[in-house]
Every structure is written in structure tokens, then in C-alpha cells.
Amino acid sequence: MRAKLLVLASSIGMLGWGAVLPYQYAYAADTRGWGPLVAAAASSLFSVGALVAAPLAGRLADRFNPVTVAVLAQLFAAAGVASLVFADVPGVFLAGMLVFGLGLTAAMPAKQVLALNWSSGDDRRKVFAYKFTGESLGMALGSFLAGQIIDLDRADGLDIGFVLAAGGFALSSAIIAIAGRGALRPAASSVTGATGAVGTIGGVGGAAGSGAAGPGADASAAAHRGGVLRAIATTPALRWTAVVTVALALGFYAQFESGLPAYGITVLDIDPASIGIAAAVNCIVIVALQVVMVRATAKRGAPALLMAVGGIWVLAWLVLSSALLAPGIASALFVMTYGIFAVGETMYSPVLNPLTAQLAPAGMVGQTLGTIAALQTAFSAAGPLIAGVLLGAGLTDVFLGMHLAVSLLAVFAAWRIKRAMAAPPVDRVAEPRVREEPRVREEPPVREEPPVREEPPTTPIDLVRA
Q1: pLDDT, average across residues 277-284
Q2: Whole-Å CA distances, 235 to 145, 210, 220, 283, 337
Q3: Rounded to 5 degrees, what are φ and ψ at 268?
Q4: How far apart are CA 410 and CA 105, in angstroms?
Q5: Is residue 188 within a helix (H) or strand (E), and if so which, with residue range?
Q6: CB 102 within 8 A of CB 49
Q7: Any residues with CB less than 8 A from the CB of 231 and at least 6 apart, and which?
Q8: How many C-alpha atoms does 30 have within 13 Å on its Cβ side?
Q9: At residue 144, what are phi and psi to the nearest 5 degrees?
């Protein structure tokens, strides 16, 4: 029941994203007349807030009750987006967007920890799949509702979107607080790979509570020596998980809202209405296939599924590239590409966070999830800039080739995760012994026994005398 309430809360919380972010650039640049520089700075500050908040919130979720962290973070986001109603100067608007980004992103690792705590190994993928589907629906619903009621020709035309977002965060916080009442916080090891409690989410792993050494144990040892960043850098499975996360983010999510639409409009010369159709198809495919895909891949290891996602990304970019050769069906190919990406998304979201949690150091699940999310956000924030530079310079082939290469890198990184997790565990507890040169065995001195005195043999005459 708690997991279902968390899915509902996550869906309602993402109304704010859909109601504000798709429209804030046009609102700041054109409606308020602040220009493209302020509008771009608002998007950048939102991303900076996300980059700062994710690792910090992950650490708080490890040390304190994640319910409290999620509730307070979302209320913070509600306050930030509500303040935009009163933003009549650029400085106030930029500050509100920064607070909005801080609060929205700070809630994410805490809610991921709650999803881990409120699910078991058997249904964990399903919970994350439903959570992702609900968030996608929330974003789509927020965008749809805001699109019907906002008026970007008026200075206060987006105020209703700001209010809708703030109300969504407040309601989401209330639902999470209700779901968390009476819930005992499990030990950190119950959701990490250090003790194998996650089971076989990643395709390998021992029985719950086995205590066998593995990637989680290696990460824990590294974390104790230098923190979660050192654990990620020195643990092969975690390191390649970070690489595949960044690669898959650059391969699609970084271009979803700006790069791909810009490519479609400026290069393929498609109708802007096709962008909305493509986004709708993406959401419909996710909703239609998510449950089916979770059931179909229930017995597959997470690294293998991530390899499949990278392969789907490669296919999508090949289809996009082929649209250059077929201008007559470019719009159809563009819309189909968003559907292809959606098929990969149905596998990506349900396995990535549980896999990261399995590999995380003991007691540092939230920090690890937050740090990985921060890396994803940082590289995703650079995606629109890269697309703008390359497409603006007419380097379409470089734009397409770079994303094909990044998607192939994701396949390779997922394969390396599989190899790292399949490697035999290394006993890192025992200290290595210094090799000693063999010593010649010294025989102990032979002890000489005193000679035994021999008695003369007894004869019959002696017996008679006796």
C-alpha cells in the first residue's frame, strides 16, 4: 500500500515539471520581455540547483528519515515555484527557478530510497516501473492542463501554471507523509548489495543476508576510505554504472526537450505540430508497454537490459539519420523515433536505480543514487548547448554521429557491468602476506642414551647356587 501511495505522490509531484518547464523559456524571454539571456540563465540555474541538491539530499536520506527529506524538499520546491507568481524582475525570477530546481531534485533520491524500502526484491522492478510511468503521466498531464489554461500574451498568463505546480508538490508531500506514518526505517543493508539483500536484481547475487563479498562489499570498503565518489571511481561495477547512466542520458534525455525538436524543425523541416505528436507517442508507448515489459524481462539481469537499451538508442539514431534521405516521410520517421526511444525507456528506468542501490556502499544508498543523478543532470544540462552549437554551425553529421557513438558507449559500459558483477569476489579483509624465503630446517641434536649394561647369561649352575 505504501508503494502505491508513493507512485501516486510521484505522479502528482511531476505536474509541476510539466506545468512550468515547457513554457518558462518563452514566458521569460518574450512574455516578460527579459530576453533570451535571462531565459537561458533560468534554465541553467534550475540545472545548477538540481546538480547541487541531488548528492546532498541523498546523504540526508541516508542519515535521516527519507520520508521527512522527501516531504520537506517538495515543500521547498512548492515555495520556490509559488514565488514566481510575484517575480516582476529578472533577479526574483532567477532565484525562484534556482529554489524550484533545488527542491524538485532533492526529493528524487529520497523517493527512490522510499521505493527501495517499501518494496521487496520480487516486486522492486515493478514498483520502479509504475513510479516511472506515473511520473511520465504526471508530466504529460501537467503540460496538457497548463497548455489549456495559460496565456503567454499576458504578464500574469503563467501564474496559473505556477499555482498548479505548487499545489501538486504540496499534495504530493501530504500523500508521502501519510504513507510514511508508522513505517519503520529498515537497516541500510536491507536495500544494498553489501549483504545480498537485493537478491538477483542485477542478474547475479547471493541469497538475502548471505554476507558474501561482491561489488557492494568492494564499494563499502572504498567508501569507508574516501567517500561515495571514491567508491564509484574505484569499484568497477559502480564506475561503469555511472558511465552507462551518463551515456544513456546524453543519448536521449539531454536532447528530448530541445536538441531533437531543433533537429526536426531546422534540419528535417517538419511541422512544429509533429513535435507535440512525437512527445504524445512517447508517453503512450511507455504507458502501453511498461507493465508488459516488466513481466517479459523479469528474469533478465539488469546489465543485459541496459545493453538492450543502448542498442535501442542506436536504432533510434539510425532512423533519425535515415530521415535525411527520405524527406517525404521525415515527419513519420521523427515521430516513430520517439516511440522507439520509449521502448528503451520501459526497460531503463525499472532497472537502473535498483541496480545502483545493489552496488552502493552499505549505508550510503541515498548518497550513491544522488551522486549518480547529479552526474546525469550535469551532462544532460550540457546537451542543449551541444545541440545548439552543432546544429547552428550546420554540423548535422557530427550531431548524429556523436549520439550514435555515445549510444554504442552505453552498450559497451553495460557489458562491462555484466563482467564486473560476474567476476569472482575478492576477499579484501585478509591482509596480503609478505613472501618469506624458505628456511633450511635445522635438525635438533640427537640425544645420546647411556649404554645399557649387559648382564652375563644365566646358567643352570647359577640357579642351583641361588
Answers
A1: 80
A2: 45, 20, 9, 35, 35
A3: -85, -15
A4: 24
A5: none
A6: yes
A7: 219, 220, 222, 223, 238, 360, 361, 364, 368
A8: 11
A9: -65, -50
Mean pLDDT (whole number) for 376-404: 81
Question: Helices 396-422 and 236-251 sit at what angle, rounded to 10 degrees?
Answer: 150
Cβ atoms of 357 and 214 closer than 8 Å:
no
Quote the Cα angle for 19-20-24, to 5°.
145
Q: How far apart are CA 215 and CA 220, in angstroms?
A: 9
Residue type, 244: V
Contacts of 33 (CB under 8 A, 6+ apart): none
Spatial contact of 34 and 83, defined as CB atoms under 8 Å apart: no
- 8 Å CB contact between 343 and 285: yes
pLDDT digits (tens, 9 = 90+) for 204-246: 333 333 333 445 545 454 444 456 778 888 888 888 988 998 8
- Is the Cα dihedral 317, 319, 325, 329 positive or negative? negative
Which tens digit of pLDDT belongs to each residue from 438-463?
555 555 555 555 555 555 555 444 44
* Separation CA 84–CA 61 (nearest Å): 28
| 199 to 32, 48, 49, 212: CA distances (angstroms) | 53, 35, 35, 12
C-alpha cell belonging to residue 419: 563482467
Please compute, for residue 3, the number of CA atoms within 13 A of its CA located in the half-sphere on the CB side. Answer: 16
Of 59, 17, 187, which is closest to residue 116 (Cα–Cα)? 187
Could you give the CA distance from residue 99 to residue 437 in angstroms, rounded to a whole number? 65
In 3D space, the residue among 199, 184, 204 whose CA is nearest the CA of residue 120 turns out to be 199
CB of 97 within 8 A of CB of 77?
no
* Cα→Cα distances 232→213, 368, 431, Å: 17, 8, 23
Cell digits of residue 201: 536484481
DSSP assignment letter at 462: H
Cell of 363: 549505508
Ramachandran angles phi, psi of 200, nearest 5°: -115, 40
Rg (CA), the chain: 31
- 350: Cα within 13 Å, side-chain hemisphere: 33
> Cell match 542498442: residue?
311
Closest of 67, 50, 49, 69 to residue 59, by C-alpha? 69
Q: Are 170 and 78 in contact (CB under 8 A)?
A: yes
Cα torsion angle, 347, 348, 349, 351, sign: positive
How is residue 300 annotated by DSSP?
S
Compute CA distances 22 → 83, 90, 144, 257, 291, whole Å. Answer: 18, 18, 11, 8, 28
Q: Which amino acid is at 39?
A: A
